[in-house]
Design goal:
CATH architecture of the largest domain: 3-Layer(aba) Sandwich
Largest sheet: 4 strands, parallel
Number of domains: 3
């Protein structure tokens, strides 16, 4: 796609996009979506890149987003360079604000930054571009010993509460299947909660169970709820055998039940070489979750 100065005047741009020139001017002024080049006479000239960007906005509007939400989602993926030359998106800045606030137990500042994200972006975008990366960053800082355990626990509690809000905002769809998510250990808890929220936002009739649940009690829960999917969390090699044992047990007990496991690292999959990993590992981000579900939902 050619970059640089504009080549389409406002009449041509409005014709390509199918919207009125006045609408283009309003979007430029109100939402700062684009800033077209001006010729010597002061007339707007739109580049191919800007036309493509506006087409993306229109596609989001057709899917039900408001103009402000569509503009905000476009802004999420736009990069700005910091003093070191690294590309930082708008989402990166909010993530850093939230992490910094958690590090000094500043709940008010963390909530202000998080509330701003919910105002700017759709709830799906907040989950994918803010919450999931922020939780991964939190775990990374802890593993690198750049965050003390008290600040880490504070951050965990903050994100757990926010994921609860995301879950409560979701509405189930009558055409989506049932799913049961069972957290066996705390090691992968927040990442697994993110996946649960992802299911809820897709309209799944999903329930989340956490804690020490006996095999017989979980078996009874599956019978009561009758889910199409059963998801188990993987928190490290120590509970690998539990995951494997339970997945085989419920797979044989409920042949129609589709079972997935969250949190299996790639290096462990290579180390063990077990086929159940590739079939049951759901991945660790929305793109991989989407692909796994699409594969399993096919008849």
């Amino acid at each position: 796609m050619k970059r640089g100065k504009g080549k389409y005047n406002i009449k041509a741009a409005s014709s390509i996009l199918g919207i009125k020139p006045g609408t283009l001017r309003a979007w430029e002024k109100r939402y700062n979506i684009i800033s077209p080049h001006r010729n010597e006479s002061g007339h707007r000239l739109y580049s191919e890149e800007q036309i493509f960007l506006l087409q993306n906005v229109l596609e989001k509007v057709e899917k039900g987003f408001t103009i402000s939400q569509a503009a905000a989602q476009i802004e999420v993926s736009r990069g700005q360079k910091d003093t070191n030359g690294a590309v930082l998106t708008q989402a990166d800045h909010y993530i850093q604000e939230i992490i910094d606030a958690c590090n000094v137990f500043d709940e008010e500042s963390a909530n202000i930054a998080m509330d701003t994200c919910f105002k700017l972006f759709s709830i799906e975008a907040v989950l994918e571009h803010i919450l999931i990366p922020a939780i991964k960053e939190l775990n990374k800082l802890k593993d690198m010993q750049k965050m003390d355990s008290a600040s880490y626990c504070f951050g965990m509690a903050f994100f757990r509460a926010r994921l609860g809000i995301v879950s409560q905002c979701a509405r189930k769809s009558s055409i989506q299947p049932k799913a049961m998510a069972v957290s066996l250990e705390q090691g992968n808890e927040l990442e697994f909660l993110c996946f649960f929220c992802f299911l809820k936002l897709k309209g799944y009739d999903a329930v989340y169970l956490a804690g020490r649940i006996g095999k017989e009690d979980l078996e009874e829960a599956v019978r009561k709820f009758e889910p199409h999917f059963l998801f188990l969390s993987f928190a490290g090699e120590k509970n690998m055998e539990d995951c494997l044992s339970l997945s085989k047990h419920y797979g044989s007990l409920f042949p129609q039940l589709k079972i997935g496991i969250s949190g299996i690292p790639a290096d462990l999959q290579e180390k063990t070489g077990s086929e159940w990993h590739s079939e049951m590992s759901i991945g660790d981000d929305p793109d991989e979750w989407e692909k796994w579900l699409a594969k399993k939902e096919r008849p």
